[in-house]
Amino acid sequence: MRELFTMWQNTRMIVMTAISAAAYVAVMLPFKGFVIIPGLTEVRPGAAIPVVLSFLFGPATAWGAGFGNVIADALGGMLSPGSLFGFIGNFFYGYLPYALWRAFMGHKNPVLSGGKGWLVFGIILVTSCLVIGSIIGWGVDLIRLAPFGALGPIIAVNNLIASAAISTILLALLYERVGMWGLLYFQILEQGGVDEEPGPFGRKAARVGGILCIAGAFIAFSAGLIISCEALGVGYGVTAFASGTKGTMAVAGGMAPGLLLILLGAILL
After folding, report:
1. Could you read off the pLDDT of 96-137 as tens digits, one per residue?
2. Which helix (H) or strand (E) holds 49?
3. How far, in Å, CA of 139 to CA of 85, rounded?
4. Spatial separation of the C-alpha atoms in residues 72 and 43, rounded to whole Å
């Protein structure tokens, strides 16, 4: 995780952050009118962009996705207190794909990595989508904008469909080309004198961090669904939003252990 901060010493990584944010805004903004839950979420084919750029630009995409989401909210008239959790959720959404891949597969081309690589890639997509759904859904539930059952499942499913359908195609088109230009994140960081190895404690610790992130994602998301949708009976998606329920501390407390596992795992990555 240290490269999230050391990257700011590298001019090219700062440029990649701006490119990531601009690309995310450019793809998301036209769809701001296709609202699913007013003021909170909309149809998001642009959800594939952070996944693709994460493999290309690494830590720059984490910041770019976070800032890009806030900018898109502001320009699309959806800026609210929930945008803070939107920043955090999108930050992790841009951080986890490359960090998890690096922990388990090194710097292999994700498109040409064989059966094991495709399995890891699929797990990373699901984990990243569950994490962003958990963080944003937990946040809006915590501040009583909407129950987790309204937003968490919509974000996770929406992002998973977009990323699964689009990211593999874009990576197949871009990864080798960007690598030939010497613009993959690890190439830039190594050229800048940064030892681009996974995690502050080495590869083994990074793999433990990856397992914690994956487990935390499923634990947090499952807890949110069980407490919000089943125990409290608010329903799922738009139905939950229409119920008028605004969130409870039960959801916030129940999801906290899973979210803490995600945070711990991300630090080890």
Report:
1. 999 999 999 988 999 888 889 999 999 999 999 999 999 998
2. helix 48-57
3. 6
4. 13
